[in-house]
Amino acid sequence: SKSLGNFYTLRDLLEKGYSGMEVRYMLLHTHYRTQLNFTLQGLDAAASSLERLSDFVERLKHLEGEGSFNVEPLIRDTFEAFRQQIGDDLNISPALAALFDLVRKVNQLADDKAIGEAAAQKILAFLKELDAVLGVIPLDAEEVTIPSELEEALARREKARLDKDWTQADKERDFITSSGYVIEDTPHGPRLKKK
What we know:
Layout: H1 10-15, H2 20-29, H3 40-61, H4 72-87, H5 92-111, H6 117-134, H7 148-162, H8 166-178, E1 181-186, E2 189-194
Antiparallel strand pairs: 1-2
């Protein structure tokens, strides 16, 4: 209720920095026959889930090389689990669990270099099919242009790390962080990501 300070309009949530997609995911995550227990922590969890999906999609888009693992049975099993749960009175939580199980398995396969670009494209096509139902998978996230001074700070940080100048490396990292970005280490080197 408004008197208890736990009443929010969509505008309030947007002003607090949540996106419409995060609100949508949180609403989607609750079964339609269940009363929604709305909390900001729930929105934070939704944001975290969407970030995990976004990172997964970006990883697939940049996956290179060849892999010998056949992902088609994994895709088929995930689709069957998803379809079965959606067909069971729109049981969305286990359906989303099937999606995140796929994310976990594919990330492990990518870590092991068992899949490559061709498998990644098949998985992206499958995610597009799932998103026709869900409408929350960030497949077309807009590319964020990193300011050049932050790219330069990242390069200086990497040089300082190679030179074992930890004070300078920490200074550059702090500058990047205070500018609203985080440094993410990838197999292809560090990259900047908006917080």
